[in-house]
Amino acid sequence: MRKSKPKKRILLPDPKFNDVLVTRFVNNLMYSGKKGVGFQLFYDALEKVEARTKENGLEQWRTALNNVMPAVEVKSRRVGGATFQIPSEVRPDRKISVGIKWMISYARKRNEKSMADKLAGEIIAAAKGEGAAVKKRDDTHRMADANKAFSHFRV
User: Fold this and answer.
1) What sign has the CA pseudo-torsion 124, 130, 131, 136?
2) Segment 81-87 mean pLDDT
3) Domain ranges of the chain
4) Which CATH fold would you assign to the domain 20-153?
5) Confidence of residue 151 (pLDDT cuts 50, 70, 90)
6) What pLDDT sits at residue 154?
7) Quick one: pLDDT at residue 79?
8) Do 116 and 123 form a contact (C-beta atoms < 8 A)?
9) 72-77 CB contacts, 8 Å cutoff, 24+ apart
10) How far from each other are the two terminal CA atoms of the chain, in whole angstroms?
């Protein structure tokens, strides 16, 4: 290693639920530092989830995030002029990051009016084990399973 790793920044918990994971989600959700807008979008989405499913919105969101987080992924590695897709376990911290990013990106691609509606729709779908983000997780797992033969190349 050439340099020392930067220190992890401590995130403050969000004002409503007092949860650090919510703040992390909103940090990925916001554009150009508009954290207030990000929090409002997230809270509106959770209210819509509660209205549609008649269950706790935060618990639905947690379930959805757990359904989206990948356990294994493939990494490209060159061995003797050929590139192999090598399956590897995902670190717990990266699991959360990747899950959050997939959920937000697929929510943005949905065809609903507002971002709060899109996010609510993606949360409900992911909590049920459906939706584009869950499909992405399944595809990633399938790809890792298909390339299991190359796992001996692991670093």
Assistant:
1) positive
2) 89
3) 20-153
4) Ribosomal Protein S7 (1.10.455)
5) confident
6) 72
7) 84
8) no
9) 72/140, 72/141, 72/144, 73/98, 73/140, 73/144, 74/140, 74/143, 74/144, 74/147, 77/153, 77/155
10) 16
